[in-house]
Amino acid sequence: MRVLVDTCVFQHASRPPGPDDPWLQEQVAALPEVLAAARRRAISLMVAHETLFELWGAPPPSLPHLGASPFSEIELGRVAPPFHYGRMIVAGTDRPRKRSTDKLRKRGTEKLRRQDWVDRRKGFLRGIRDQEYLRLVKQLGGNKLEDAFLILTAKRNAIEWVLTTDKHLANAARQLQRKAYGVTVLTPIELRARLRGEA
């Protein structure tokens, strides 16, 4: 069985949550059993191109191909995008820009963040006119562009399961299951239960 992995799973697996989020702590605690199932090839974990682009700015342990990642010894399958497209990811002219949310690092210097590639990705996702994608965005909530793209990627690659540690996505995706969309969004605890034959 193939499981498409959401970006947040890679991030949470390498940087466990703090004590203020017990739900997420429980999800992360279930991940080792899921990863063990992937190592013994009981499941095939898959990754989308857009997920790799999202991880580009993440701290190194989040990158699945690096040794510090819990995913480093697992062969991650690649899935095709949901439709053919081309876009610019990063340009040599990208510069850090001052943001209203940036704080002063010390007197006289400004902390600047590289955001051009993030803005470019959001612009790409906002510009998609695929009707099925737009319906997914509407069903999941307007701020769930990446999640809608991930689910559409799973659907068009005939992958039944998407693994996430995003509580909001897991809750929003329940309506997709009720509508028999063909893609089930699972948390690590839910996937572990299926692997154990409990669900």
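[next item in queue]
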Amino acid sequence: MVTAEEIRQAKKFLENKKFSIKDVKPRLFAIVAKELKLKFTDLLDKFEKEVSDGETTSSNKKQD
């Protein structure tokens, strides 16, 4: 179970990262972070890696 403070922190984090709380629920984000024992930034990085499925994106391509 997460506290109201943890949910508020998750909401603020998501808003600062320009995520809609309609798309990413702060309560669920906080629960997952707590269960996996990850900081919010680490959890977001993990999500991004899973979503990209290891594919090279324009942000992580090597520049010639």
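[queue empty]
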